[in-house]
From TrEMBL:
Keywords: DNA-binding, Transcription, Transcription regulation. The keyword Cell division does not apply. It holds the Pfam family MarR_2. This is DNA-binding MarR family transcriptional regulator. Residues 9-137 form the HTH marR-type domain. PROSITE patterns: HTH_MARR_2. InterPro entries: HTH_MarR-typ (IPR000835), MarR/SlyA-like (IPR039422), WH-like_DNA-bd_sf (IPR036388), WH_DNA-bd_sf (IPR036390). It comes from Streptomyces pseudovenezuelae. GO terms for molecular function: DNA binding. The lineage of its organism: Bacteria, Bacillati, Actinomycetota, Actinomycetes, Kitasatosporales. It comes from the Bacteria.
Amino acid sequence: MPASSARQPQDLMQLLTRAERVAARRLQSVLDEDGCSLDAWRVLTLLSDGKGHSMTAVAEAAFLPAPTLTKLVDHLVDQNLVYRRVDPLDRRRILAHLTPRGQTYWRRLSREVRTRWPVLNEGDDELLRALLGRLLDTLEETAAVDSA
């Protein structure tokens, strides 16, 4: 008896990939109006918490290799949206922060994205977040067991 389609990893991968690509295109269409890339938006979103983040943390959050992130942050610095400072707790690390202009820019982008982003009903949105979180946890746990 063939396995049910719900148990086929390729079906889930197809849905996840398609959803990510459609969502990225939708988001990019909003960001294009302000001349912002999806990668820059991810960086700005992380830095919007005001805490300052190491370049390693920013690279991980933005899903970018270090050299690509460095070029992107250089560009954001040139636009006066981001600045870098030495971490006062570990002088070997550099922390990235939003400038006041960067905060204003990010708030405007964020408002525009929220306004134009299609919303599931609240219960479905929370359910999707929970299920994706569980999927990530399961995949990470399985990867850790497989590599041990």
